[in-house]
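Protocol step 4 of 5: obtain the predicted structure for the target chain.
Materials: sequence only (see below). No template structures provided, no constraints applied. The aim of this step is simply to have a reference model before the mutagenesis design in step 5. Sequence pasted as it appears in the construct record:
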Amino acid sequence: MLRVTPIYGSRWKSQGPAPVGSCTLVEYADVKVLINVGGPLAHFDWKSLPQHDCLVLTDSTLESMGSLPLYCGSPSSTSEVYATFPTVKMGQMSLYEYHANLSLDGGRPPYSLEEMDDAFSSMKTIKYSQTLYLPTREKPRLSITAHRAGHVVGGAFYVLERLKDETSVVITSTYHIAKELHLDSSTLLQYGATPDVLITRPGGPGMPFLGQLYQAKKLKPPLVSQSQRTLVEHILSVLRRDGNVLLPVDASGRVLELVLLLSQHWERHRLQGAYNLVWLGSMVGNTIDFARSQLEWMAASLGAQFDSPGKGHPYALKAVQLCTSIVELDAILANGNPTCVLANGLSLDHGPARDLLLKWADNDNHAILFTDSSQCHERPHRHQKIGKRTPSEKPALRENIETAGGPSKAGSASSQEKLPGSGAASADHQEESQEDDDIGAAILEEESSDYTTSYQLLCHWCKAKMEDREMEDSVNVDVLVPRRTPLAGQELKTFLEEEESTRLSKRKQEEEQAMLREVELAKGRLRLGDEHQGQHQQTPVVSSEGSIGNKNVSSKGAGGLSRPKKKSRFDSSLFLKFSKPLHCTYPAWAHALFAHRID
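Step 4 output (structure tokens):
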């Protein structure tokens, strides 16, 4: 019997999408397989998770493994966690990026870095076409085989086959049957074309709006080559009018396709001197290093290019400048060239993409191009109880987004920020003044939108597209901005105690290292513990009685006897004990007595 139980993330709401991430329990052949632990969902009760035999992850995105550290720390977790090698490595980059973005905003991530490392260290890597047999401690009843799903490097769909009658079930979340620049097409049509049951999901979080456009034939599914040409044309059209382009991207998934596409175009047309191409994110250096070492998981054409003499590595990215902070980006922008920035932070609620949205809000020549709707979902804090605000919580900023009305799919958009109280004083413009007062004003998080900034922009564009009109010149969206409040009370006391403890520990280590250096210097000066410079050897010597024996003979002479080995009298432990300064204290009357003592 086959039983599929959605744990979370599989139902749609009437007013919008479900929370990001999904988790599904599949029971087949008396074996329970858990598919994905997306998120991160800190509010979910992980103790209530049903018992299962193993966990398999389909890809490295937050939608598939964002809650992995929370899952591994729960009592319901299992040690049998399987994923492909790129999923493990790129998943680390995704979670590290998410943790860094929240921490830099002053927030509190739902898990620590140590919990993340422990979760990934317990995972077991598999290859494509590798078969697992479950259960592992009993007679196997079910086989699980991973195959290439496309979309992201290391992405996989799984074929579950019951060994009793060879009936099969195919489980896949996101797949791509077309060949791309950095990935070959999915093998779903080869290995999963005729299953008994297919378990998948209908599109991403933006499906309620985008699905209506496809049903009404307002949009047509474009070809890969056509989408690539359209994206490059829109980017260059903005750069030619001296504007900057912001492309919100994920940390280690689809960004590899975008950065390779733009890098090849920049190098082919020699655009480095005219336009800047930047990849901005806290983990971009590590991500590109992992990508360069995983060519065997990518398209065959990239491997052939690497093996060809003189062509170099396909991910050398000579035209791309890597930045880890806004400060480094400002140094690049100082040359005055228009810039295309691939910034991490798809939701526009956190990360450098949100920072650039706020920074470029006063210039309508700039543009925002969306290529991924996976983070167009409900804000995570809406699932939690709204109680007393902490210093780490962030108020929302109401931004006025003026769209350029371009023909791009997501709309070429720029934001213009106005200060409160900047409206006209006349009675005719009183209504406009009141509207301007709301723009740029800080509002409570409870008053902000239930959905991410990227979802709000996508919603405005889809509504305009459904009505066969251009997007409004000005739309209002809520942007979460960090609010850094000075520590006070118990938090300040705890922070000072931790800092003092760290300082004393560091000072103690420095003193121990200094003592060890003194020990080595003392040994060198006194030459204590050194062995005799001459090498000793055993040479047979004939005694007067005619017997043959072995005696120590120095290398300086065949017949000379060596000196006895000198025993070192230097004890390093005593040196450490008596060389360390001892500070003695005396009572006040003793100081007074010593001061007036007459010899």
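Step 4 remarks: The chain has a mean pLDDT of 80. The radius of gyration is 33 Å.
Proceed to step 5.
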